[in-house]
Amino acid sequence: MAVTEQEVLGQLRKVIDPDLHKDLVTLGMIKNVKIEGSHVSFTVELTTPACPLKEEIENMCREAVGEIAGVELVTIEMTANVRANVGKGVPTQQPLAGVKNIIAIASGKGGVGKSTVSANIACALAQMGAKVGLMDADIYGPSIPLIMGVEDEKPEVDEQKEKLIPIERYGVKIISMGFLQPSGSAVIWRGPMVAKAVQQFLRDVQWGEIDYLIVDLPPGTGDAQLTLAQAIPLSGAVVVMTPQDLAAAVAVKAVSMFKRLDVPILGIVENMSYFLCPTCNSRHHVFSHGGGEQAAEALDVPFFGGIPLAIDIGADADQGTPSVVLNPDGQYAQVFREVAERIAAQVSIRARSFIPLTMNA
Ligand SMILES: Nc1ncnc2c1ncn2[C@@H]1O[C@H](COP(=O)(O)OP(=O)(O)OP(=O)(O)O)[C@@H](O)[C@H]1O
């Protein structure tokens, strides 16, 4: 008996997305089902190219369809279409055309490595095939141009002289408040001014199609951060902290700021989590251990992982090439990629209300 599309979809209904807890057919992820004799082919459209469960999902699909009597060959094309989820629609916030998700990277205090983490995550997502933007909103100390090696670049304006064209490096579209100020000069702006400037800045950029716009916020939880976080239609915030007790306390402050603003906390990243000895490759917990994980648990938000304190991570960033780019096969790249995948998965989970709950084969 000939294999039918109904049978194929019936089997794929048994495959549950481990993150979204619904079957792939209901989630609208199955496309282009084709049956030619004993050969079944279809496309699985994931919600992010950075899906850590890509292989697992492919295997589950192959197994499920392979169980149908008469099927001898299953060809699966794995693609991704990032779902949009930008903010809860605060009246003053307009979504940015073409930008599907805006993720703020925040910290309760300065120097925790927020910009280093932002740049590595942006590059990691781009390497995995996502369309990524990186906006440096850290007006007090913009360090993204340095980390991304674009310090001497100045963005051009488009032909209509209306929008700035972001600088592209390592597959990431970059815009920084630092591009607009002469190097070496410090900007002393009050909170509301910063928010207004950043909001306008954000809109005056020709972003094009962006799956994830990573926004490196200024450190702290003062007025500037508050107004800024309100000004941007955020999908969610990632809080970066270090393992010390005090850092946990300030991270808690950052988390509560976002909660007050109704901005979902995507999760916590612990930077300089442990020292990875370059000689013996063993882990040393220089500071107290497990602070990030404990803070995440106490605040009931996901823990995205710990990034080691490593001379190379700092040196790579300071020399203008994030570690994931400089050494994509290295162990630091692996750690950053895992964190990026977990963030992307969390964004997909948050955006699930935007997923059409219709059969979409
Ligand atoms: N995991 C790491 N291992 C080693 N050095 C790191 C690590 N992360 C960041 N650094 C270094 O720490 C310094 C501060 O990092 P970064 O500028 O990213 O912090 P920040 O939190 O963005 O700071 P700011 O307060 O300026 O916003 C930099 O010199 C950077 O190279």
TrEMBL record:
Alphabetized UniProt keyword annotations: ATP-binding, Hydrolase, Iron, Iron-sulfur, Metal-binding, Nucleotide-binding
PROSITE patterns: MRP (PS01215)
Location of the MIP18 family-like domain: 5-75
GO MF, one annotated term: metal ion binding
Domain of life: Bacteria
CDD domains, per the entry: Mrp_NBP35
One Pfam family in the UniProt entry: ParA
Residues that bind ATP: 108-115
Example GO biological process: iron-sulfur cluster assembly
Quaternary assembly: Homodimer.
Family designation: In the C-terminal section; belongs to the Mrp/NBP35 ATP-binding proteins family. Belongs to the Mrp/NBP35 ATP-binding proteins family.
Physiological role: Binds and transfers iron-sulfur (Fe-S) clusters to target apoproteins. Can hydrolyze ATP.
Name by which UniProt lists this protein: Iron-sulfur cluster carrier protein
Annotated organism of origin: Capsulimonas corticalis
